[in-house]
Design brief:
With 360 residues, the chain is mainly α. Helix content is 65%, strand content 2%. It is built from 14 helices and 2 strands, in the order αααααββααααααααα. A two-stranded antiparallel ribbon has the order 1-2. A hairpin with a 7-residue loop joins β1 and β2. The radius of gyration is 20 Å and the shape is globular. It starts with a helix and ends in a 5-residue tail after the last helix.
Length: 360
């Protein structure tokens, strides 16, 4: 929106050309999203508390969590507002990648909002029925996958890149649709499973989004992509603006979500952010790198799968409780220790992912 205005004004005053630079708009995107989150956050928390939209705590969870009952939830709506406003202000609204990422993120947020609303307002502990939630997730994920496949302008847009290997690409063809669907839906649910401790999910999301923004910038820049051996995709660099919005909104939310949390993001935030990371990774052709950098999300998901499979097959549990962050809590780790150590793991994994740019 402001980009279009700046382009118009640049006809009369050349200084406005500065807004054509992605790096500047990315910085402004971070600051805008961060400012919105910090300014609106206190008002939102007050309103959620007044309407008694509080978190419901599992009876079988760690005892240390019982005191969190009633803490305002559905705070993820604040993140989505900050992301949407920042992207609309500083992004190129003629770029279809921007719209795909933004729409997928917001639609998953709607699914999460309905789930949260049923839990905290209607007092339905089950929320949105699992099969219904999965149906809507699948519909949105498949819709995005088919759209991207049908509108691909070059072969590079459907290649699977193998990290740490030079010039090794797999032409997915129609299988691109299946992979895209799995990445979007899988990432959405993985972040949702991770969102169980104060700040545990949001900081890894911020770090992964920031790293994907670097990949987006390099992939959309012909000279850099050619130098690094990354398939060039015209226009995908614009995704760096929405990645920046993710970072700013996430940091702003963390201000209120850090231990002890004043507000939780709920499914409205977790499902949306996970799907957002997934669709961004698809657009910049870094699905495997997302798997690496989002290793904490993967670990949480695998722990649930293993726990359920083991219990059904043998009647025994592998972990004291799943997802795995609860296992460490029940072993006696204080909540802040679990959170910070998982953050440290994410830092290491993100650095490994970024190293793939040169190690080939």
């Amino acid at each position: 929106m402001l980009l279009a205005l700046a382009e118009y004004l640049s006809q009369y005053y050349s200084a406005f050309n500065v807004f054509s630079y992605l790096t500047l708009r990315a910085i402004l995107g971070i600051l805008t999203a961060l400012s919105i989150a910090l300014l609106v956050g206190p008002y939102m928390i007050k309103k959620l508390s007044h309407k008694q939209i509080g978190q419901v705590i599992r009876d079988d969870g760690p005892e240390s969590h019982f005191s969190k009952a009633g803490t305002p939830t559905m705070g993820g709506a604040l993140i989505l507002v900050a992301i949407a406003v920042s992207t609309l202000l500083w992004g190129d609204l003629n770029n279809h990648y921007v719209w795909v990422v933004l729409i997928v993120t917001l639609l998953f947020g709607v699914v999460g909002w309905i789930d949260d609303y049923r839990k905290v307002v209607h007092k339905d502990t089950k929320g949105l029925i699992a099969r219904h939630k999965y149906f809507w997730q699948s519909l949105i994920g498949l819709g995005a996958a088919i759209y991207l496949y049908m509108n691909a302008q070059s072969a590079n847009e459907t290649l699977l890149l193998i990290p740490f290997m030079k010039d090794v690409f797999i032409d997915l063809g129609p299988f691109y649709i299946l992979l895209t669907y799995l990445v979007i839906v899988g990432s959405s649910n993985a972040v949702n499973l991770t969102d169980g401790l104060d700040g545990l999910a949001i900081m890894p999301t911020v770090m992964v989004a920031g790293a994907l923004g670097i990949f987006a910038y390099l992939t959309g820049h012909y000279n850099f992509s050619n130098y690094l051996g990354i398939p060039y995709i015209h226009g995908v660099g614009e995704i760096v603006v929405i990645c920046a919005a993710f970072v700013g909104a996430g940091l702003g939310f963390l201000w209120f979500n850090t231990y002890p949390a004043q507000v939780f993001m709920g499914d409205v935030g977790a499902l949306a952010l996970g799907a957002g990371l997934g669709i961004i990774a698809v657009v910049v052709r870094q699905e495997i790198i997302l798997f690496i950098m989002g290793g904490v999300f993967v670990m949480e998901t695998v722990s649930v799968i293993l726990q359920v499979a083991s219990y059904k097959l043998t009647g025994r549990r592998i972990f004291r409780m799943a997802p795995i962050h609860h296992h460490f809590e029940l072993k006696g780790w204080p909540e802040p220790r679990v959170i910070v150590r998982f953050w440290i793991i994410t830092v290491i994994l993100v650095l490994i992912g970024l190293a793939s740019l040169k190690i080939r």
